[in-house]
Every structure is written in C-alpha cells, then in structure tokens.
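Q: Fold this one first, please.
A: Sequence and structure below.
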Amino acid sequence: MSMEDVVERARRIVRPTRLEERALRRIVEKALSAARREISGVAGALDVSLEGSAAKNTWIRGRAEADIFIHFDPGISREELEKIIVDLGSRIVESLGGEPMIMYADHPYVEGIVNGVTVDVVACYRVEPPNWMSATDRTPYHTRYVLSKLKPDQEDEVRLLKGFMKACGVYGAEIKIEGFSGYLTELLILYYGDFLSAVREISCWKPPIVIDLERYYESEERALEAFPDSPLIVVDPVDRSRNAAAAVSLTRLSELILASRIFLKKPSIRFFKPIDPAPRIKELKGLIRDRSILYVSFKLDSPRPRDVLWGELKRSEQGIRRSLESLGFTVYRSGSWTDERRECLMIFELDGVELPRHHLHKGPPVYLRSADEFLEKWSRAAVGPWIEGDRLYVLRRREETAAHRLLRERVRSGQVSISKGLVEPIKRSRISADARSLLKLASRNDDLRRFLAEFLAARPPFLRK
C-alpha cells in the first residue's frame, strides 16, 4: 500500500463520525448552558468558555472531550477557587446526567462521562500574560493561539498526528504516559505544516531538539540554557518561560522518533489502529514461561485522583526497584498498573527470583589496620578469609534467598522508599513470584491482561507483530 493510500485510510480512522460530532455539539451546548446557569450569582465567577480540542476541532474519533472552563476574578483566593470549582463542577456534571469525579492537576477539577463524552469542568483566573496565577490560566490563550494560526485543512493533519501518536503509545501528557499533549501536537503541525512533513522531521530528530515558533530566543543555545536537561523543547507561544514539551520523557520521545522512521520505510495502517483486545490467559502463559517475574499486588483503602495515584505508583515502583538491586538482584524492567479505583499492581522482571546461597564479601587491603578487625569479625565465615592481590575476601552465607520474602521483610520494616500514601496498602500487599497466582489475578480483568501482555512482550505498540 502506498503512503498516499495509508494516509487517506488513516484520515477515515481518526476523523470523528457525523454522529459523534452531533453528539459532542449537543453535550457542549448543554454543558455551557448549565455552567452559565450555575455561576449566576457566584461571587468572583466571571465567564464560561469551551477550550481544548473540541474548541479547536482537532479531536479524534472515540475521544470526544468537552473542556468547560470557568473564569474567575484574580481577587478570589486559591483556596476559595478550589472549593467553588468542586461544587460548581459537581452540580454541572450531575445536571448533565453524569457522575462527578474530583480530579487533580495543578488544582482540583471535576470530570464526568456524559453519553460517551468526557466533560471536564476546570477553573482558571482571568489574567493577562504573563501574570499567571495557576497553570490553567494559559489554556484560553492556547486555544486562541491555535485558532488564529491553524488553517481548516490542517485540522485533519493534527488528527493524523494524534492518531499516530496514540497508536504508538506516546500520546498523553499525564504522569501515566509522560508523552505528547494535544496542544503540543497542534504546535508541531503549526511548525511543520502537515502530518507527513512532521513525521519526516521527527524521524531525523536527535535530542535535544528546540522548536521556537515565535522566536522568543535568539538562538538554540539560549533556549537550551533556559530549559536545561529537556530532551525536547517547544517554547510555548503564549509563555516564553514555559516548555510545552516538559512532560515528554526521553523514552517516549525516542519511541516516537523510531516509530516515525519505521513508518516512513514501511507505511502501514497499523500505525493508526487502536489497542489490541485483551489477550487470553493461554497467551500470557506462553509469554511468562521461564521468566523471573516478581509482583506486588494491593488494594487502596479509598480511590484517589488519577495523577496523584500514578505519581505515587511510579515513585514506589522505583523505590522497590532500588531495594531489590541493593539486595543483589538485577532488575531488567519494571512497570505499574492500576484500574484507577482500588486495584494496583507493580511488576518486576529479574535475573532470577532466588539469590545464590553464598555471596562474595570484599574486605580491606591487608596493610590497613582494619584488616585485623575484618579477620576477627569473619573468622567463622562459611568460606575464607582468603587473600587475593592485597585484599581480604570471604564468602558469606545468606539465611534467606527468595526475592519475594526478602522484599516483604524490607517493606514491613520500613526499609523501602515508598510514597507516603501507599505505605500501608503495600505493607498489606501480596508480594509473590508465583506466575500462576499472577495469571489468576489477570483472569478477572481485561485491562490487567492487556497490561501484562504489553509488559511481557516488552515491545512498544509499533514494533508488535
């Protein structure tokens, strides 16, 4: 299939259907009306607007979202604003027939699903750049900027890039993904002009990359000084002090570069296809066979905001990984999963789930006084002491060698760096290296099976067969 045929078919995949467009318009109209009605008489609430991809007509099929922003007077305190938006947002979502959920980013906002459309009710202060009082204050300016620059024929180009990123697993700026936001994708199309030009340029990227649409900085060097240690710098056109690509990790950036290069060599519609269905347990058995897998499974006491939970999971995953390494295990890879309500799981692939019964312990050089102390301390070692070169050595015997029991003891004694909010749930967790019990857990949840298949296959979506 030619590149032109692939892109044309991809347009039909990412472009919303007329039915979806009509459904979104209805929800947006109702949501805006409800918001205007609810803010009437609320001190400090000034106006209501539609923001995000719905306002810019860059949303893709299956991802209809209505971002309803309520603008507040800067005189309202942050604490008061947060209380008001939770109350207003909950009432607005309920009036539309949805179930409100309190979410957190820079500050709380309310989310609900209404007839398949995700409705977010968000607060922002009405301020002039660059006098931002919260992160969401920039969003209305982002919308205006994109609308003023984006040509009608570029809307589908944005959709193509979003669909490509989504299928490749790099779309989404949330902590769970650490990828490309919708706004960042729009900026890339504004900069490169169309989807294919963007992909061709991305395929040649070598970090660090600097993109400065408004040429705020006189050189790339100046931009790199302003945003050190960032693999991708896209200077926000509405705020020269902000990197619109700050959320993008080096891993996600590298995946996009490689996916773009492969796509250009072998164009295929699979680069735009949605996630595969959940695999069968039989398939997982084949993937997990002869692998050294350790997992930590636990339940939360109560639900918590999505981004808060993912931040806690990732920090705790790294803490457990460091603890396993300090015990003597080699951790090849690790990952985290949650249903974002109660169930959580962290998984680690090791070089083995049992340590050798004996391990080498290196002592000081013989010419140091501490050598005498070493000899006295280890005179009854399992093997040694012996001298090799100028140093003393012994083999020490381990009383416990199993990874799951060693980790459980460290967790219970507080020797593992775990996020404060997860300490008690992880102390009560199931820590196991038993593949059968892991597969039994996965048999109850399609999303968990999908996560395990992705983890065990160890291939980003665009490299899967």
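Q: Good. Now the second chain.
A: Here it is, same layout.
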Amino acid sequence: MAEVETSFNNDMVKIANIELGEFPLLLAPMEDVSDPPFRAVCKANGADLMYTEFISSEGLIRDAAKSVQKLDIFEYERPVGIQLFGSDVETMGECARIASRVNPDLIDINYGCPVKNVACRGAGAALLQDIPKMVRMTEAVVKATHLPVTVKTRLGWDDSTKNIQEVAERLQDIGIKALTVHGRTRVQMYKGDADWTLIGKIKENPRIQIPIFGNGDIDSPEKALEYRNRYGVDGIMIGRASIGYPWIFNEIKHFLKTGEHLPVPTVADRVAVCRQHLDFSIRWKGEKVGIFEMRRHYTSYFKGLENFKPFRSRLVVAESHDELLSILNEVQEHYLGELVG
C-alpha cells in the first residue's frame, strides 16, 4: 500500500464546552432514519456527535405525538443534539425552550432540508432566500436556550445565490457555536457532486472562530482523508453512507490514524449489528411498530449479497422478534464467512 499522509493538527475540537476529539465524525440528522435505535448502532461504531431526526417547531408547539417522540434521547448517545426546523421566528424560539427541557447537549437548526414540503413552507433551505430572517430566527433560538446552538445548512438556494460565506459570519456573530455545511445548493437537492470549495473558504476566513463541519458525499476513508486535508474542516458529517453501514465511522478513524483499512465486515458482523438495531427498535417502539419500522433497513444492511432477495422478502413480512431472529440466523449460516465489499 502506498504511504498515506495522515498528519493534521492535534487540537481538540469543541462546541462550547463539549469536547469532540481531534477530528470528530458526526452522524447527520436524517428523517425516518436517525432515530434512537439507529443512533445506538452508530454510536457503538464510532460516531462522535449525533442529532435527532429534525423536529417541526409547529408540531412540537401543538404537542403532536410524532414530534414529541423525536425528543427521546438516552445517556448512551451523548453528546447528542436536537434538531429543529420551522418558518416562524417566535415559534422557533418557543420550540427551543421546549426542546431544552429534555436536556440535550445542544440545539441545532435545520436550514438545509431541500424537500418540497419543508422548503415550500418557508422552512429548511428556504431560509437561504431570506438571510435577514435566518439571522432573526437563529438569534431567537440562541436567546431561548442555555444550550449551545449550532446550524446545518447548504451553500445557497441555487448557483446564483451561494451566500454561505456571508451566512457563516452573520450566524457566528449572533452566537452559534458550530456550523455544518452541505456542499450542494437547494436546487441541486442530492444530485451531482457536492462542492466543498466554499466550505474550505469559510475555514480560511480569519474571522471564523467556530468549528466548521463539512457534509456531502463522504462514503469512504480515502475521501474523508482527502477532504480533511484539502479543505481544512474541523470534522465531517456523514449521512447516507452510514445507512446499513455504521462501521464507516470507525473505518474512517482507523484510516486517518494509521493509513490502513480495518477488515471489511463479514456477514456475521452485519447480522450481529442488524440484530442490535432490531432489539433497540423493539425496546423503544414496542414489538409491532419496532418490527415494522425496521423493515426499511434490511436491504441496506445486506447490500451486495448475491441472491439476498428471498431472505429480504421474508424479513419484511415477518411479524415476530423470534421469527426475525430465525431468518437472520439462516442468513448468517447461508453466507458463512462471506465478505461484502
């Protein structure tokens, strides 16, 4: 293997007083994915900071059951942040007060979600079209909580409004403690390649003193190393690459430290983590809902296995914990010792 340059600064990255290590890896908040069971397996496999699924400020104010349930956090997750989104300044402030009562480690504001039913309601990435309102909303949240406030956003609304450098300065000036930037515009959604160039320019700005985390397209240890060295970010947020593959956090950490790869997870490793995920899901949501919501994860955990479809077909209709464990045991026996690249 060719020698890999892994040296970097050895400063401890901190969000306010929360110590995250020298180069933290963050689990992105993902709707219908990053619930407590998923966060549990990511934490066990090296995630340094995690966030809840994003929570609607309007839903939380109305005491909507789905929004309230997303406030569930557990000691094993810490440090953990609660992510909020909304379109009304005063409501976001009140929502921050409510979320602070469950004692997360920080509050995060979502200014990056590009999906239509969020952005077209004036929330998420829509705020990139109204920076003064974004500033007022952020200030309201900062004033409403004793906790550190962070922000996740995008480069801009479209190619003609990539205003993230201005956004970074203005949000730092009103008190946010860290900024995560996804290297796409809202118009791009999740298409094309993420462009980290402007993220790197934020880090080069001598006025910026808060941690800057990059997000977008990090799906391998090699890319994590390349982007860390090229753009100088304080850490990396990982989203889609962790779905069904929580090992990515420890794989990146090991590679950054040694320049070497950890062994690829075997099918037995995948079955073991899938079982853990299933057990957490049932404990948190109850057997019926826990089993139902776990169904979206089986394809991801066993991606790349040849002729897996018959097993998946059985997993997604199984209705009991015992039946699922029996099928997972069959998977392990059938693919005994096999690696999945």
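Q: Anything worth noting on the second one?
A: The first helix runs from residue 36 to 44.
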